[in-house]
Amino acid sequence: MQLLVSAINLEEAKEAREGGADILDVKNPREGSLGANFPWIIRQIADYAGTDITVSTTIGDVPYKPATVSLAALGAAYSGSNYIKVGLHGPANYHEAREVMENVVKTIKEYDESITTVACGYADSYRTNSVNPLDVV
To answer: For the chain, first and last CA: distance in Å?
Structure first.
């Protein structure tokens, strides 16, 4: 089992690591439940983590804009993420969610095959007209 701890800045990442975190999860809750953080913050945390600890990042509660989301994912990858999480907020159905994720995965794999991409759904998707997470499992 691994312990994932969210951090919004380098200070929190240091505290998380000292507390035994195996994965530093960089996010910005001011921008949503899976809110994206700034590239320089991701880079600071990735540089601090080195190869000793995994860095995951969220790229936001994303819209149904596959190219825009792909560029955001590439920014997270370039900034040092090992895992990139995509909050499927905008896609309204399976086909839209798949289009977003296929393009994000293609972008990331062309950049670095070792980076993992994660699709994230919302249990309350019915409130926001987002894709039902059970439809993309």
So the answer is: 22
Can you give the residue range of the structural domain that contains 92? 4-135
Q: Distance between CA atoms of 18 and 3, rounded to whole angstroms?
A: 12
Strand residues in 1-137 grouped as ranges (E): 4-7, 23-26, 54-62, 83-88, 116-120
How many domains in the chain? 1
Distance, in Å, from the CA atom of 60 to the CA atom of 69, rounded to the nearest integer, reads 9
Instruction: Find the CATH number of the domain harbouring 43.
Output: 3.20.20.60
Catalytic residues: 27, 85
pTM over 0.85: yes
- DSSP-assigned letters across all residues of 11-23: HHHHHHHHTT-SE
With a cut of 90, say whether residue 98 has pLDDT above it.
yes
**137, pLDDT greater than 90:** no
* 54 touches 23 (CB < 8 A): yes
